[in-house]
Design a protein that fits this description.
110 residues, mainly alpha
């Protein structure tokens, strides 16, 4: 993710799904399968992907990668949702620190 990229809080779960797909080498539809339940309920779908990440990622990609995926899927960055500029700035900073920087360090070790 290049510098200058701004993350949107509502896009974080989608990024988590993409990272999950990469981590287990499977598409979201394949991961979901028939066990995903009613796709009309976003919280149920989100919970399904969270369970899949918790069960399947660490053995394939390691603890840090799993933590990044779960953080994105859950939207957990320690920033209270807000509409003010400062909360958005803090979200950008935390996303950079807790996702981008960790992935960049991992890349350097490969």
């Amino acid at each position: 993710i290049k510098r200058g990229f701004l993350v949107n809080r509502t896009c974080l779960p989608n990024l988590g799904i993409v990272l999950l797909e990469i981590g287990i080498w499977s598409t979201a539809l394949t991961i979901g399968g028939t066990g995903i339940g009613d796709a009309r309920h976003p919280r149920k779908v989100q919970a399904w992907y969270i369970r899949q990440a918790e069960r399947r990622l660490e053995s394939r990609m390691g603890r840090r990668y799993k933590e990044i995926v779960l953080r994105c899927l859950k939207g957990e960055f320690g920033i209270d949702p807000g509409t003010d500029t400062m909360s958005e700035l803090r979200l950008q900073q935390e996303f950079r620190r807790k996702v981008v920087d960790v992935l960049e360090r991992a890349k350097e070790n490969v």
